[in-house]
Amino acid sequence: MALPQVQFAMGLALTGVQLVGDEDRSTPDKLRGWLKFARELGVAGVSLNGAMPGLRARELDRSARRELAALLRRHDLVPMGMDLLIPPSHFTDAAHVDRALGAVGEAVGLMADLRTLLKDMPRATGAAGDQPPVLCLTLPRGPSPALRGELMASAEKAGVRIADLSWHRGEAGEPTKTAGEDGGSLGHALDPAAALMGGDDPVALIGAFASALFSVRLTDASSDGRCVPGNGRLNIAEMQIALSAWRYSGFVTLDLRAIADQENAAVAALTAWRGEG
To answer: Is the dihedral of CA 103, 134, 253, 80 positive or negative?
Structure first.
């Protein structure tokens, strides 16, 4: 099957990135290395790791936020979003829920600040560059109306979107939609590897989630677990066709969690995505 002639803005998720030599580097040096890596890959944006010590929203004052924005500008990278992978149980456990919701509020505030600081930055990202930044969370199965309301209020106040990156499967074999039913600022993030490992078809899920699909990851899985995109069971051509057919206009984000030799893996994944292999 020929690849469709559709261009999607590409990004890199910084969560899970591990480059050669990172174990000996400070957080600022790691971040500079990751942004340089992203720029060399030719992606247009990055999704920050909101749980990384030194980059947590609560640790960044106004001056630090300006410095982060300047670093992104120097690398010509759009801050397209953030991953804040709090354990799902923390959103329902009375001992943790206030802290979890507080972290969400702080994260969306940081995303809004970065968007404001970089509002004049030229963007060669097409329609994706005009989309609100996306905070990806891992929510519990069937979040309560109260939790959905809290999350939507935080997102709407900051002018961002929140997407559920977790994967839940219903007892009858149908995916359980944990978000997006309310419309507005709360929706889905599609992780093809998680869907494949759960026995689902990520291409079909694009249509199922289309009305509230805020984030799409470029991931893949084989019988052994997560693998380099293009080396597993994901049909990249069909995924691109579905994204185009359902008019997805956000970033497609390369996600290297649990992938070894990431420098070479990233190049191989983007080569497969572009149909150049």
So the answer is: negative
> CA nearest 108: which of 177, 165, 162?
162
The pTM score is 0.93
CB-based contacts of 228: which residues, under 8 Å, 6+ apart? 220, 259, 265, 268, 269, 272
Q: Which fold has domain 10-273?
A: TIM Barrel (3.20.20)
The pairing of strands 220-222 and 225-227 is antiparallel
What is residue 72's three-state secondary structure?
Answer: helix
H/E segment holding residue 254: strand 252-254
Place of tokens 């030719």: 42
Instruction: Give, in order, the Cα–Cα distances in Å from 185 to each of 71, 93, 113, 144.
Output: 28, 24, 18, 16
Q: Are 11 and 218 in contact (CB under 8 A)?
A: no
Contact indicator for 155, 185 with CB cutoff of 8 Å: yes
Tens of pLDDT along the chain (277 residues) come to 444 455 899 999 999 999 999 999 999 999 999 999 999 999 999 999 999 999 999 999 999 999 999 999 999 999 999 999 999 999 999 999 999 999 999 999 999 999 999 998 876 566 677 889 999 999 998 889 999 999 999 999 999 999 999 987 654 345 555 555 555 899 999 999 999 999 999 999 999 999 899 999 999 999 999 999 999 999 999 999 999 999 999 999 999 999 999 999 999 999 999 998 6
Q: Which of 181, 173, 171, 164 is nearest to 204 (CA)?
A: 173
Give the torsion sign (CA, 40, 228, 264, 67): positive
C-alpha distances out from residue 33 to 24, 93, 132, 241, 257, Å: 12, 37, 26, 33, 17
